[in-house]
From TrEMBL:
Name of protein: Acetylornithine aminotransferase
Cellular location(s): Cytoplasm
Top-level EC class as recorded in UniProt: transferase
Family: Belongs to the class-III pyridoxal-phosphate-dependent aminotransferase family. ArgD subfamily.
Cofactor(s) required for function per UniProt: pyridoxal 5'-phosphate
Cofactor note: Binds 1 pyridoxal phosphate per subunit.
Length: 408
């Protein structure tokens, strides 16, 4: 097949139609820039949906991958391997956790967390203590269990019956959570910043209240840090900016910098409920993924990088606020670190997709967080000049759409 035949149209011919990718095909990247098949250049504010934390082709990650590729690629969990052990040691040294389980994705990390919470409750209390409390508009993955725990019913439609024992409360509403929690609750799971649900930060008092409820009812507190983790909010993990420590934490996305890997972190006492044979994965903890993730962790843990995230946040928000002063497009601008959401005003509700397409035509790539929110999750290494250029391009796209007018 010639390269000219490998194009966006081929997607519609050969791929299962569960995605609708943008009308271009990126072929190479460098730092915060991407180029498509026609050599058009884009500033990437998507970060692979908060994945490419160090940008494209970061030399430390390329070096780690190449060096490990010359040693061993895969062993399965019949054996352990050096990269997995090094990475686990660094994660436990850097966080509250004492034990790590490696897998391939955020959904798998959350699946493991939810299973472990139920198994721990079964081992220490009884089989009736199995309910999980989650939040409306939350997102925890696309397995049948994780879409059920997630608070967006649209992801369950057509896949029923779904697992039982899951309840949902409004986000940031502690009284509503308290009404749902009982001695049957084995876990509460929360995103420190709801990502897919609209880039909504959790209130600090809300998180403290969840911790107290879990302690009172012998339930585990799970932080889903798949999107907020690995420097995204300005700390290695978002819980570190609070006075709340979870019992279980899930990580993925930025952990591999683009190479698939996920992790579930917990304490020694809780981890004991996953005894030999209770849970597993063929590819989890593979040497390639762990070698790359170790390099990511080393780079992201540098204090100057983490401090820079807060500065870049302020620059993004200031630019978005300036755009809003001129055009009155955003009802709210919110987020933490380099996970930022701009909610569209009522007249433009449901039309975030138009802004993605228009921004692409102006050479900048952005995301949605639902149909009403523009989402920005660029590489943590993005330079000020790229932020400024991207915001100028975004404003040109906005001006174009305003001329066209909102859809009725």
């Amino acid at each position: 097949m010639s390269s000219s035949e490998i194009n966006r149209a081929l997607f519609d011919e050969v791929m299962v139609p569960n995605y609708s990718p943008q009308q271009m095909v990126p072929v190479r990247g460098e730092g915060c820039r991407l180029w498509d098949q026609d050599d058009n250049e884009y500033i990437d504010l998507t970060g692979g949906i908060a994945v490419t934390a160090l940008g494209h082709r970061h030399p430390a990650l390329v070096k780690a991958l190449k060096e490990q590729a010359d040693r061993v690629w895969h062993l399965s969990n019949v054996f352990t391997n050096e990269p997995a052990l090094r990475l686990a040691k660094k994660l436990t040294e850097a966080t509250f956790a004492e034990r790590v389980f490696f897998c391939n994705s955020g959904a798998e990390a959350n699946e493991a967390a939810f299973k472990l919470a139920r198994k721990y409750a079964h081992d220490h209390f009884d089989e009736e203590k199995s309910e999980i409390v989650s939040f409306v508009q939350s997102f925890h993955g696309r397995t049948l269990f994780t879409v059920t725990v997630g608070g967006q019913p649209k992801y369950c439609q057509g896949f029923e019956p779904v697992p039982g024992g899951v309840k949902h409360a409004p986000f940031n509403d502690l009284a509503a959570v308290e009404a749902l929690v009982s001695e049957r609750t084995c876990a509460i799971v929360v995103e420190p910043v709801q990502g897919e649900g609209g880039v909504i930060p959790a209130d600090p008092d809300f998180l403290r209240g969840l911790r107290e409820l879990c302690d009172r009812h012998n339930a585990l507190l799970i932080f889903d840090e798949v999107q907020t983790g690995v420097g995204r909010t300005g700390s290695l993990y978002a819980y570190m900016d609070t006075d709340v420590t979870p019992d279980i934490l899930t990580s993925a996305k930025g952990l591999g910098g683009g190479f698939p890997i996920g992790a579930m972190l917990t304490t020694d006492a809780i981890a004991r409920s996953f005894s030999v044979g209770t849970h597993g994965t063929t590819y989890g903890g593979n040497p390639l993924g762990c070698a790359v993730a170790e390099a990511v962790l080393d780079e992201v843990s540098r204090p100057e990088l983490l401090v820079g995230v807060a500065d870049k946040h302020d620059r993004f928000v200031a630019a978005l606020e300036a755009i809003n002063q001129r055009h009155g497009l955003f009802a709210d601008i919110r987020g933490k670190g380099l996970l930022i959401g701009a909610e569209l005003v009522h007249a433009w509700k449901g039309q975030a997709g138009r802004f993605l397409a228009a921004a692409r035509e102006q050479g900048v790539l952005i995301l949605m967080a639902g149909p009403d929110v523009l989402r920005f999750a660029p590489p943590l290494i993005i330079e000020d000049a790229d932020i400024d250029a991207a915001m100028a391009s975004l404003e040109r796209a906005i001006e174009q759409l305003i001329q066209e007018g909102p859809e009725s």
